Amino acid sequence: MRNGTDPSWHRAREREFLDHAEKLLQDDRLRLETMRGRKPVTLMLRKVTKADRGGDLKRMMSEMGKRDRELQDRMPIGESIDVELLHKWLWVLKSTVGRLRVISIPPTSDLLRDKAPKPLDIQNYGALVNVPARPGHSPVPETVVIFSSSGFAPDMLEMSRAPGSHLILVEPNDSGGFNVSASLGLNDIAGLFDPEQEQQKRQRVTDAIAAQAGDLTGSGIAVDRLAKQTELPMQLVEGALKSYAREHAGLVAKKLDGRLVLFRESSTGTGETAGGPSMPMIDRIRALFGGRGENEKKIAFLSERRTALSQQRDRAYEEISTLEGKDGGLREQFQKSTNELVKRRVTSQLLQLRKDMERRQQLLGVLNQQINVVSTHLHNLELVQQGSTAKLPNSEEMADDAAKAEEMLADLEASGDLASSVSAIGTMGMNDEEQALYDELQQETGGAQTAKEPAPGSSIAGASQTATGKTQLPPLPPLSERDREKKRTEPEAG
C-alpha cells in the first residue's frame, strides 16, 4: 500500500517502475519533444546516465541514529535515469536537442520514522527536482517523469494536467496497478510509462470478478463499479467482462439500464440448451419446430429481470447512504450554528431529506418484493428444467430392473451352493484301504524318525528326558487291523 510503512513495498514498486522505464528506451512508440519536433527515441543518439540517492539515504540514517544495514537494503534509494537526445551534424559534432528525465522520489523520511508516508506535493518536488539552465546553451525541450510510491498531492496532479506541461506523474494505486497523470498533449506517450501490461490488467479484472462470484447469481457485477474498484479504464473492463462471459458457461454480459452487467443467466443450463450460438443449427431448428426451449427462454428472461431489479436496489441503497451522510452533516451544522435563521433553514432541509429517505425506503420495499417473486418463479422453473434433463427412470422401469436383479441374485446364490458342495467332496474322509495304507506309511515314517534320533543317555531306544529328569518312553505305534484282530482272538494270559 502506498500509505504503508513497509520499506520493502516502496522499494519493489520503485524497482519495477525504473526497470520498465529503462526498457522503454528501446521502444519506437516513445516519441519525445525535441528542437526538431516529435522524434522516436530509437532514431536518435542517446546518452543515458543513471544515478541514485543512496548516499543521502545513508547520511540521513546516520543522523537519525539508525545504523541498520538490513533496513538500508530494504529502503528505496531514489533512482533516476537522465537521457540526452543528441543530433549529429558535420559527421563529428553533436548537439543536445531534447531530454528525458525519469526520477523516483520516495518518502524516505517518513519511512525511517515509521510514519504513514505523505503524498508528494509541489513544495517537496521543487526542493528535490532542480532543473538549472545550462550556461551557453538554449533551453531544450525536456520531458520529466516523476514516480512517487506514496502518491501525489492534488496540487501536483493539477500541475501535471495543465496545458503545455511536460510533466508525467506515475504512482501505484491500492488495487495493484499504477495511475498515470499528464496533460492532453502527452496522453499519447503517458500510457507507455505504466509498468502494468495489458494482460496483467485483464488478469486483475478476472481476479476481481472471481472474488465477487457470489454476486453473479443476484445483482450481478456492473462495469462501472468494477472499473472504480480496479482503477482501470472503462473500455478495458468492458472487454474483460465480455471475455469472461464467453469463457464461462451460464454467464451473460448484457447492458441493463445503460450499464454493462455480468450475471448468471441460469444455474442449470450450460448455454447450449437455450439455443445459444454454440448450439448446432440443426438442433436449433428441431427445438424451434418441436416446441421446446420455452423454459430456457423464461429462465433467461427472469434471470435478466432479477439482475436489473437487483441493480436498481443497489443504487437505491447507495442513494440512501448518501442521504444519511447529508443528514449527519446538516445535524452537525444545526448544532454548531448560533443563528436562528440558519437553524430554521437547516430544519427545513432535514425535513425534506428525511421524506426523501422514506420514499427510498418504500421503493426498496417494493424492489425487494419484486425480486422475491421473480427469484421464486425462477427457482421453480430451474427445478422443472433440472428434473426434465436428469432423465430418471419411471416406476415401471424401476420395477422391471428390480425383478431382473432378484433373478440374478437367485442364480448367483445357486451357483454359490454348487461351488460349496464341490469343495466339500475334496475334503471327504478316505476309504478303508486308503486308511490302512495311510496308517502303514505313517507308522514307517514315525519309526524311521525314532531310529534316527535316539535320546542321548537313554537305555531305551526312542526314550526322551523330561524337565523333571524322568525318562519318558515314546508312544507306541498304532496297531494295524490284522494285529487288532489277532489280539482279540488270542486267549487272555493267566
Question: Can you give a write-up of this model?
Answer:
The chain has 494 residues and is of the alpha+beta class. The chain has 16 helices and 13 strands. The protein has helices at 7-24, 54-63, 69-74, 108-112, 122-128, 154-160, 187-190, 198-211, 223-230, 234-247, 281-289, 294-336, 340-390, 395-425, 432-452, 481-489; strands at residues 31-34, 37-40, 45-51, 80-89, 93-104, 142-147, 167-172, 178-181, 221-222, 251-256, 259-264, 464-465, 471-472. The protein has a 6-stranded mixed sheet, with helices on both faces. It has a 3-stranded antiparallel sheet with strand order 9-11-10. A hairpin with a 2-residue loop joins strand 1 and strand 2 (37-40). Helix 8 (198-211) packs across helix 10, helix 9 (223-230) crosses helix 10 (234-247) and helix 12 (294-336) packs antiparallel against helix 13. The longest helix has 51 residues, at 340-390. The radius of gyration is 47 Å and the shape is extended. Residues 133-137, 268-278 and 450-471 have low confidence and may be disordered.
Q: How many DSSP E strands?
A: 13
Q: Briefly note the structural class of the backbone.
A: alpha+beta
What's the main sheet like?
6 strands, mixed
Helicity range: 40-55%
Low-confidence parts, pLDDT < 50 over ≥5 residues?
133-137, 268-278, 450-471
Gross morphology = extended
Individual helix count = 16
Strand order, biggest sheet?
A: 3-4-5-6-7-8
Spell out the helices and strands N to C. Answer: HEEEHHEEHHEHEEHHEHHEEHHHHHEEH
State the end-to-end distance: 121 Å
Mean pLDDT metric? 80
Write the layout of secondary structure elements.
Elements: H1 7-24, E1 31-34, E2 37-40, E3 45-51, H2 54-63, H3 69-74, E4 80-89, E5 93-104, H4 108-112, H5 122-128, E6 142-147, H6 154-160, E7 167-172, E8 178-181, H7 187-190, H8 198-211, E9 221-222, H9 223-230, H10 234-247, E10 251-256, E11 259-264, H11 281-289, H12 294-336, H13 340-390, H14 395-425, H15 432-452, E12 464-465, E13 471-472, H16 481-489
Parallel strand pairs: 5-6, 6-7
Antiparallel strand pairs: 1-2, 3-4, 4-5, 7-8, 9-11, 10-11, 12-13
Helix pairs in contact: 8-9, 8-10, 9-10, 12-13
